[in-house]
Amino acid sequence: MATKRLASGFSEQVMGMVKALRSDAPDCVAAGAVDMSTGMLLSYETVDNHPPEVLDLLAGATLDLFQGRTVVMIEDVFKERRGITSDQHFFQEILVNSDNLTHLFVRMNDQQDIVAVVVCRKSVNAGMLFAQVRRVVREYRF
Asked: What top-level branch of life does the organism fall under (predicted)?
């Protein structure tokens, strides 16, 4: 059974999670955490140097994927039709494949405003990627 990783403060926990994602996700080239309430990149680790504006765009793109206007509208329609009054979001995980990379975005279970982002080589085994990222995310509570 996995133990909960608790650090002394929020930022230490986020940095610890990003470090664990970077080291545990297969074929990982970058990992990060985005705060959906502010649209800010909280922490990241990468094997390459990237311009700051690219990292800022990653945070904004993550926000659009999970809480863009159309996505929120879809969630609201489903909630209304199903009689759900919870603030829980429907979209919990999103996998995006680009020409050379696979990007996995996962909402934190307990803190829906935090999304873990993992970028791997396209050759990654998607099942192993999901398994490892889910395992790491489960170990952290913010």
From this structure: Bacteria
pLDDT in tens, 32-43: 999 999 989 999
Can you give the pTM of this predicted structure? 0.88
Distance CA 46, CA 62 (A): 17
Q: Where are the beta strands (DSSP E) in the chain?
A: 28-35, 40-46, 93-97, 101-107, 114-121
Return the amino acid letter for 47: V
CATH of domain 31-138: 3.30.450.30
Burial class (CB in 10 A: 0-12, 13-18, 19+), 80: exposed
Residue 111 and residue 133 in contact, taking contact as beta carbons nearer than 8 Å: no
